[in-house]
Design brief:
The complex is a heterodimer of chains A (about 200) and B (about 160). With about 200 residues, chain A is α+β, with helices and mostly antiparallel strands. In chain A, about 30% of the residues lie in helices and about 20% in strands. Chain A has a single domain (about 20-190), classed as Glutaredoxin (3-Layer(aba) Sandwich). The radius of gyration of chain A is 17 Å and the shape is globular. Chain B has helices at about 1-15, 25-35, 50-65, 85-95, 105-115, 145-155, and strands at about 20-25, 40-45, 70-75, 100-105, 120, 125-130, 135-140. The chains are: A alpha+beta (about 200), B alpha/beta (about 160).
Chain lengths: ~200, ~160
Amino acid sequence: MKKFISLILIGCLTILSAKELDLGSILPLGDIKMADISGKDVSLNDAKGKNGLLVIFSCNTCPWVIAWEDRYVELADTYKDKGVGIVAINSNETQFENVDSMEEMQAHAKEQGYNFYYTMDNGSKLASEFGATRTPHIYLFDKKDKLVYRGAIDDNARKPDKVENTYLADAIDNMLAGSAIDPTATKALGCAIKFAK
Amino acid sequence: MNRYLSIIFILIIGCEQPDLHHATAESIYNNVISKKGEEAVLLNFWAMWCAPCVAEFPIIVDLADEYENDLAVYFVSVDWLDEEDKVVSFLKDQGVTWTTFIKDEKDNAFINGIHEEWSGALPFTILYGKSSGEVLDYWEGEQPEKRFRKAIINAINS
């Protein structure tokens, strides 16, 4: 009986956290078209650069996004010319009618000087497939579409001048140089993605 | 006389301040483990601007009151440290005058130190058994009162 209860408990615990895409996984749902702030429909395959793809699950209002998004723009400035495509994805399905509407996304992107795709993930399909749980939540794929890093941008959202570990930039640099990435996974606090119930 | 006692009581309650401490994952765990054999423990990680966190906050306060003899509830704020004063005001407004914490550690170490399955999304709740002191349940995201109650009863009986 105890064994049975334990199995139920383990089962319950398992479904409480989304399973994140394993490192080494191949880019999923690459062909799904999403509405972009440009007015066009864009897929992950469209967003890919010749040397890789950076996927950022994001949104318009999360304080952690607000704190970190200056670095989205810096990363795009630095790495787009090096062949790394960048796409921010808004998966906050329950807020698509208000604060995360396409109009609000366009306004937010303009205000913040976004220089990359910013798409709407209808049905939160990509967030579900990636196991993304929060904003910002980062996934970096190499030129063979293999996941090589996931997690945080760096270790200080609030104070960019106090950053000690530039996890993502280091990962991209090492990916481009063909060197080992370490760490390959990090965590940061963030706003829970608002999946439709 | 009763009237004066009532006024004094109101003044005492009104002046009572939240007992907020800077914390790392390790210092929080030390508090958890100190309760083993005495009380079950519920940790709730929250932030002031996190709407789901704020929505479920009063539910947890009420349950902390209801199960005060068997359950220790520790709220852990992950707000920016430079907004600590606002956190104190929020806690006071919610009637939380017992020991609470505010994160003072880098995210990656803090999150992994609390539980390896926590992704960093908020709110996050984790429960430890009264007798065992072991993790019995945890979840990310807002939950209704009945979900909290069920987990609390299980933790008290484990």
